[in-house]
Design a protein that fits this description.
- The protein has 117 residues and is an alpha/beta fold.
- The protein is 17% helix and 41% strand.
- The longest helix is centred in the N-terminal third of the chain and has 20 residues.
- It is globular, with a radius of gyration of 16 Å.
- It starts with a helix and ends with a strand.
- It binds copper (II) ion (CU).
- Copper (II) ion binds next to loops.
Length: 117
């Protein structure tokens, strides 16, 4: 019984960490291609800085075969794309106003953010 309680607490702590405390570093979109790897429940990198008012593109490669990882959505931009397994998928982004734009999979397990400034 005690073990089960401890496991429960551990699970709660993990969930809290995962959703509220875990803050990945920002990655700036440089001159070269930016490739976002979709694996093990995280986009890496997951926080991507983009210049404002300039069209750009981001690429994803999905290494996670679960259906959860299959789609990437950017709701504010009405973008919804299917990511083929183990293949690079490039998404064109229009020129964007300054702000933060979330992107995530359908169930929002995978989550990331575009930081436009
Ligand atoms: Cu998902």
């Amino acid at each position: 019984m005690l073990i089960i309680n401890l496991l429960g607490l551990l699970l709660i702590a993990l969930i809290v960490w995962w959703f509220w405390l875990y803050k990945p570093k920002d990655t700036e979109l440089g001159e070269g291609d930016l490739l976002i790897v979709v694996e093990n429940g995280i986009y890496s990198p997951s926080r991507i800085k983009l210049p404002a008012n300039k069209a750009s593109e981001i690429s994803f490669i999905r290494r996670d075969a679960t259906p959860c990882a299959e789609m990437v959505l950017i709701p504010e931009l009405q973008i919804s794309e299917t990511l083929p397994l183990d293949q690079t998928k490039t998404i064109q982004l229009p020129a964007l106003d300054k702000g933060h734009y979330d992107f995530h999979c359908q169930m929002q397990m995978y989550r990331g953010q575009l930081i436009v400034e």
